[in-house]
């Protein structure tokens, strides 16, 4: 299980915040950085120019076999289909397990650089960031500054929604958060290792979330993005949403400049809190 070094862009000014962004299937941290950080806001500036005190960390997934494309590629986990995300879900588990562990290790490294000020670190990207957040209780004990997701989906969302519907409506928010987090962690748990003790500190699940998705995205349906938002909202995570049409890459990307405006606004607002 070898992950290449992350692409890291140091801030021009004093390092006050970090943004960790995860690439999509078939990309890597270097290419993703070049594409994402060249996008401009309505002020004709990139996020690098607008946020000079941010350290950008863009990890790269290890190579793994893609069932859909029948080749090795950089992807955080395998998936048979994005039209039917429940198809062959067992193929997703190993990659999710490895990637969640890796992403959380990067998160801890960045928190250490900022004296464990969780409200100075953002996590984001496509799909995998949501899983890392939901599995983080027990490793990170405070809300992050924010989570930024775009054009993504949530593996095992159908099962999570079904489980949540069966919960006693009298359960308080803390109990619901604990059960949902345990559901996701159990999916990737090693059966040979005793389960970790439940944690009482679930404050990371109060991290504010921004999710952006193209209504015309042909690769990941906007309905999958809406489903991910429902799961988070079901445990009282505050989710801001943005849907748009006409982005580059046939709609599977951030709309320029509107999408970059909203990402910038989200980061700036939560940097100040």
Supply database-style keywords:
alpha/beta; two-stranded antiparallel sheet; single chain; 273 residues; 9 strands
Describe the structure.
This protein has 273 residues and is α/β, with parallel strands linked by helices. Helices cover 34% and strands 16% of the residues. The chain has eight helices and nine strands. The protein has helices spanning 29-36, 47-50, 90-113, 128-135, 157-165, 173-187, 222-233, 258-271; strands at residues 7-9, 17-22, 54-58, 63-66, 71-74, 121-125, 146-150, 209-214, 239-244. The strands form two sheets. Strands 1-3-2-6-7-8-9 form a seven-stranded mixed β-sheet, sandwiched between helices. Strands 4-5 form a two-stranded antiparallel ribbon. Strand 6, helix 4 and strand 7 form a beta-alpha-beta unit. Helix 3 (90-113) crosses helix 4 and helix 5 runs parallel beside helix 7 (222-233). The N and C termini lie far apart (38 Å).
Question: Strands, helices and their partners?
Answer:
Elements: E1 7-9, E2 17-22, H1 29-36, H2 47-50, E3 54-58, E4 63-66, E5 71-74, H3 90-113, E6 121-125, H4 128-135, E7 146-150, H5 157-165, H6 173-187, E8 209-214, H7 222-233, E9 239-244, H8 258-271
Parallel strand pairs: 2-3, 2-6, 6-7, 7-8, 8-9
Antiparallel strand pairs: 1-3, 4-5
Helix pairs in contact: 3-4, 5-7
| N- and C-termini, Cα separation | 38 Å
Q: Regions with pLDDT < 50 over 5+ consecutive residues?
A: none
Percent of residues in helices: 25-40%
The largest beta-sheet arranges its strands as: 1-3-2-6-7-8-9
Q: Main sheet, how many strands, which sense, barrel? A: 7 strands, mixed
- Radius of gyration, in Å, reads 18 Å
Number of helical regions? 8
Q: Number of DSSP strands?
A: 9
Principal-axis shape equals: globular
Mean pLDDT: 90
- Structural class, from secondary structure content? alpha/beta
Strand content bin: 15-25%
Helix and strand element order? EEHHEEEHEHEHHEHEH
